[in-house]
Design goal:
The complex is a heterodimer of chains A (593) and B (371). Chain A has 25 helices and 17 strands. Chain A is of the alpha/beta class. Chain A has 5 domains: 98 residues, Glutaredoxin (3-Layer(aba) Sandwich), CATH 3.40.30; 206 residues, Rossmann fold, CATH 3.40.50; 84 residues, Ubiquitin-like (UB roll), CATH 3.10.20.600; 90 residues, de novo design (two linked rop proteins) (Up-down Bundle); 56 residues, 2-Layer Sandwich (Alpha-Beta Plaits), CATH 3.30.70.20. In chain A, helix 10 runs parallel beside helix 12, helix 19 packs antiparallel against helix 20 and helix 22 crosses helix 23. Chain A starts with 5 loop residues before the first strand and ends with a strand. Chain B folds into 3 domains: 74 residues, Ubiquitin-like (UB roll) (Roll); 151 residues, 2-Layer Sandwich (Alpha-Beta Plaits), CATH 3.30.70.20; 44 residues, no CATH class. In chain B, strands 2-1-5-3-4 form a 5-stranded mixed beta sheet, sandwiched between helices. Chain B contains 8 helices and 18 strands. The two termini of chain B are 50 Å apart. Helix content of chain B is 22%, strand content 19%. Classes of the chains: A alpha/beta (593), B alpha+beta (371).
Chain lengths: 593, 371
Amino acid sequence: MDKKDIVIKVCSGTGSLSAGGKDVLEAFRSLAASTGTQAEFRDRCTAHQVGCRGFCSRDVLVDVIINGEKITYELIKPDMVPRIFEEHILQGDPVDEWMAGEQHREFHAAQTKIVLSHCGEMDPESLDAYLASGGYEAAHQAFVRMTPGEIIEEIKRSALRGRGGAGFPTGLKWEFAGRMRSKEKYVVCNGNESDPGAFADRCIIEGDPHSVIEGMMICARAIGAERGYIYVRDSYALAVKRLGLALRQCREHGFLGSNVFDSGFDLDIRLYPAPGAFICGEATALMKSIEGKRAMPSPRMWRTAEKGLWGRPTVINNVETLANVPRILGRGAEWFAGVGTENSGGTKVFSLTGKVKNTGLVEIPMGVTLREVIYGIGGGMVEDRAFKGIQLGGPTGGCLSEAFLDSRVDYESLALAGTIMGSGGMVVLDETSCIVDTARFFLDITQAESCGKCTPCRLGLRRMFEILQRITNGHGRNGDIELLEDLGSHIRATSLCGFGMTAPNPVLTTIRYFRDEYAVHIKDRKCPALVCKNLLTYSCIQENCTGCGLCKKVCPSDAIRGTRKKSHKIDQDLCVKCGSCFDACKFDAVLRE
Amino acid sequence: MVTLNIDGQDITVDRSYTLLDAVREMGITIPTLCHHPDLSLFGGCRLCLVEGSGMRRPAASCVTPVQEGMVVQSSTPYLERLRKTNVELLLSDHPNDCMLCERAGNCKLQELAYYYGLREHRFEGDRRIYSRKDNNPFLQREMEKCVMCGQCVRICDEIQGVGAIDFAYKGLWTKVTPPFERDLDCEFCGQCVGVCPTGALTGRIWAGKGRQKFREVDTVCSYCGCGCILTLAVKKNQIARIYSRKDTINEGMLCAKGRFAYEFVNSPERLTRPLIRTAPKKDWQLNDSGRYAQVKPERSSTNSSGVFREVSWEEALDHIAFRIKEIKDVHGADAIGGLASARCTNEENYLFQKFMRAAVGTNNVDHCARY
């Protein structure tokens, strides 16, 4: 056999592990050992785990790289491994039918991977792998060769803005904290990602924990902090585990502790597993939580960069923001600023979900249009149904209509449209999604997650949710739309923290762009998308009905009457709207409207 | 110093002021529920909103520091609408049982509802209903009436240093409660009762004693030497409740005794005249050496404290003088000890120890507050 290098990379993010990624990796390893390949090639044949590469709907993804030639397989199960090993690795003949196809290329083609560049390429649990890819060089440079002022200047020139949602310029924040004179300063990494459907921070930590730590080290050096906290949700078990491991490796190698890189500078970073409430992600609530108090936002009388954790200057940055930092120092601020728009440099990671063909984690340069994301990376709508709307920025974001498909994805354009960048959730809705029900769904989350401190958020969101519930249950009243608008703008104007200020967004934007759909729900008691159960009616189309009686058999409430071979009737008073007859009928004789 | 303009008038205040301080200094009323001058800033009720130049949205004045050149409006139709909606929201989650509420007439929420003319509100929906009752002896806690101002939580933590209660749960179901919803088991100082703006926290012994038209009598607490000023709310010549005013030496704060321990005043069991024991306790007898000693009761005694006779002060004092002399002659002065009360004044306690040392001739004198 020729001399060759064999590298097998098995995706090991949370999504992949639940699809059996660990078994796939084990299968490769045991085959390599049992066939003697391992013995023959020694360290030139490796099989290792890598972080999430984004395309989670096609897990388990496996890269087989022979002499630099990469073949990607998708939807791999452990029992498929022997054939790949036999045909591809031993005989050099790739298994065509399992190879990732057009969809995979389409998904990755339009993306620009900066933050996610290590995810899917590198073993997240190995410090050596990170060092081999140039890891901790930026931190070394920051500690040994650069002054704090130079670092801050570099970050400012990169036009990096906070990826947590609000988009505050990162360099400016560091400058505020750096300017403060204080014996103690803190750097905090906010990893309390709690939006349903958002998993960007999670994947970054799971796939590349060292980048986050390196970003924190650079930040600590820039502002003069000697203590850092990584605040990450306890329920992100794999992320907590890998971060803990990475921190241990750093301490063992002297990257953390006293006299980092012989610079005379001390730094310790600790992991703080968060209790997991949505509001813990709000900066002031997060600090209260680290201080050991109940996570309730405080009024912002000072910047946290000036008076934060325990009253000391504190920089709180999002996971993604910090993971960008080593890249900026490594490749230069100009390169980074060149990737994005004028006001915001770099890329943003989005969690693309909903009714698009390709779902998963996508990284796009700032300023790309929504159309490019949905129809390019996303591959278009499922079953080519019509696009209806897109919910951006999680449950406190807004829902945009088709008219905004060509608007650009950056902080200013999104704010103009009435939504936020938020945590980077993108939920695509099509004609089978009910707008009112979607708004109700998001309000259900936010009203339950309100910390209860301020009146408009605690009670106002609850009342909005109850009105929406009433509308989707068919009890909507005239004036409900106006009441929702009034209450929504009231909460936005009077709430204490950013959560309350943005929480009515789903309702306000959907009323703004889809007012008719609300009106139909209230006036006609109909749900055009056929989602709101209580607004549906089932009736029998006499011409189509053959009187087979199947619907009668499946009806749980005996609401269907009729004799055999004659058309049936549905008693609306008894019907519980379960839809069993609709599903059972073979002659399209049940009308759902 | 900072100069700013509020409602068209210039005012110069200290740099440490908040907008609320400045507005109030000008004599302008602005509603608040959660603000307390002695406690940390909260900013939760969102009633003290103001509008101003350079503000993107209305700001809560209690948590906005003053800045040079600010132009602020404390009351505009828009602000009044926002305040009214907030009160409406609070009422939509309130039992509205003012008829039976202990705080009616002295309730900030009721006052706000009256001010904004709110008999009804626009919202229908869930209301907090708690069936579980707290069995502590002093405080009546009706958490349905709580407006989440957090003053009780803060005064307990920041002033009393106890931290017996805190917020629990989220959303509508947020609740101020002792840990794990247990019965309140603290020092019962009742500071939380003192700051509660609604009827959520009241004294158990207040119930049914009247809630308005009190005759207020200022007095000094007789329990210890601190000298807290009490205000007795008197109705039908009986104390209905006790509180303390803000402008007193104790700044309106009281402890459990000062606030709740007043039932003795009108108690029928209260001693009003001196008593002399006419027969010793049955299980105590004079032994051969002339000392009283406890003996094993042969049969169950019916009156263990002996039999008392009501006497005049003259007779009582004569009896005391006679017995002290007698004991001193037989057993010496150190057989006598004196225990004074913290409820006496300093002067009385001074005289008592002087009496013990000079007249009786012993140093055996002590004071109940040592224990």
